[in-house]
Amino acid sequence: MNKLLIVGTVAFDAIETPFGKTDKILGGAATYIGISASFFNVKSAIVSVVGDDFPQEYLDLLTDRNIDISGIEVVKGGKTFFWSGLYHNDLNSRDTLVTELNVLADFQPKVPQDYKNAEIVMLGNLHPLVQSSVLDQMETKPKLVVLDTMNFWMDCALPELLDIIKRVDVITINDEEARQLSGEYSLVKAAAKIHEMGPKYVVIKKGEHGALLFHGKEIFFAPALPLEDVFDPTGAGDTFAGGFSGYITQSENVSFDNMKNAIIYGSNLASFCVEKFGTERMVDLDENEVVSRLKQFKSLTQFDIEL
Amino acid sequence: MNKLLIVGTVAFDAIETPFGKTDKILGGAATYIGISASFFNVKSAIVSVVGDDFPQEYLDLLTDRNIDISGIEVVKGGKTFFWSGLYHNDLNSRDTLVTELNVLADFQPKVPQDYKNAEIVMLGNLHPLVQSSVLDQMETKPKLVVLDTMNFWMDCALPELLDIIKRVDVITINDEEARQLSGEYSLVKAAAKIHEMGPKYVVIKKGEHGALLFHGKEIFFAPALPLEDVFDPTGAGDTFAGGFSGYITQSENVSFDNMKNAIIYGSNLASFCVEKFGTERMVDLDENEVVSRLKQFKSLTQFDIEL
Q1: 3-class secondary-structure state, position B31
Q2: Which domains are assigned to chain B?
Q3: Which Pfam families does this chain map to (chains A, B) (predicted)?
């Protein structure tokens, strides 16, 4: 079984949407990535940090899904990273209400020995220096390194971000961030510029408008499944990244054609994530639902024109 | 060969985009629909009205594409409908600078006798009463009636619009208009409400984000082709409608599966329309380019997951 190494936040989130609000609940990029990747036949481990205020039940939730948490440092007397956000009526934009870095401020990631030869590395959204440090600790060159990041790091750690971008095979980024990073409005031109920064594959996430995969001149597009209601978009991008990297790890095939499938699997899992608050929908999702919705993706996009 | 009856404006447009501006050039919904449908093996006719200021060369351009223009009334001493618009930097929004109805104000459409038994009727954007009058003149029931409309008629002629919506099989409408017409933000819910107003098929156009086809619980999605540059979006929606109705007319197959293909053909033709000002790109487009881009649409969307 292939190994997937995940780095990213494990956190508390408090979310408010037009449909309701939560107290502090389980959140964090690595949490969503790990849960999403657990739908595939892979060995996975999370590298992250929490405080000793982090409930054992949340850690148990991850180990119950066969995620190795030996790389999650628990800081005695420390407080877990906390994020709070308010979504606007269209759910496409949000205000960050609170960001408490807490134990994340001084985080030195430690990759478990058993994962220093992981086939696939998924660098979830986090300080670029932390992402770089994880790559530095690998003892064998991974078959594929996937990077997710966001505009925050472009604003406050651009040189470090450009360093790590240079070292990865795939970058996943949203449309506005791709425009900011490249200085190009056209996503085709933006992807071309980001290719030049290093990654052979550029994935541009457009939220409810789907995701684009660029590889040189080749382009693939996966729509988001049209849903009656989007309840809470938190974690959708990370769930997408987890499905993408989990599928690639399981199949151990890093061809462009296989990445198309990975994009579809990622979009499929993300379509569940937004149906309830936080990780709620993902933790009670079963395999039959996943397959049934994959069939919906096929009928949504496949057509029969002979050329 | 099957017949396609088109009603809509034939007009002068003056367009300004971030890339340049035009004088009065050939425009109008029926013009774009007719040119787009001319890429299929169909007999087509346009019902419309112009003033005697309308250049013969524009009429010749239509007849050169085998479009029957006997239903285009030329009003002696009348002035042709004129629209002028300014696109913003993102090309997704525009301001209307001038709308001169001119001969359109008193337009009484007359369907040529030879087209009163047309298999397919494409009601382009125009006053709902004009669209209704065209349907009233049909002597045999068309196999399919397609309606395109816009928010303007929702604002100023809603009862008449709801009357014509009741009578058509397919409605094509953009996302904001679907939300306005239905009062629902979710496009899945909006389509369900519009179904209840009459049309069995609802096509929601999302511009650069593609188009959705709804038929009860069935949904199909066609992306817009990612382009390096969009030059001028004018007429893209009409070109889409012309490709859709032209393909349906040629194939004479009104099944949901065939409509998927029609949506792809429409999206394909629309992707060319936006590459130059007005109808410029469409009139010098050749069959090889159309087929080559259809192949791009296939590789953009087709994947190989066995379920």
Answers
A1: helix
A2: 3-300 (3.40.1190.20)
A3: PfkB
